[in-house]
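Sequence in, structure out.
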Amino acid sequence: MSRRKARILALEALYAYESAGASIDELLRLGWVEEKTLSLIKEEELAYSRILIAGTIENIELIDSSIKKHLIKWEFSRLKRVDLAVLRISVYSLLFQKDIHPAIIIDEAIELCIRYGTDDSFKFVNALLDAIKNEL
């Protein structure tokens, strides 16, 4: 497993957080992931997923505020849940994971959007994250 796959787990968790109101404890247990799959994941990769999940949720107000500040002609409530999950993880990384180059964070967000979002999600997410990055 790679950091990308760890980000996918975090994406799934944040989607569940937004959709079903799952608690942080439920999400950190990664209960939706099959035991067989979990057994194949390295502990440091699981730890990275948990850092993204916990860090994002613990800082959700600041993260959402940053997203809202950069939305132009778009309402926060209209964001698709997958896009919102990708944005939240990525903004958390931009704000708090200074050891990761912003270009990598944005590239990973684009890849997640291409894989899980709608056809044009990646363009929207890219522009929004670039605006946030430029303000840091």
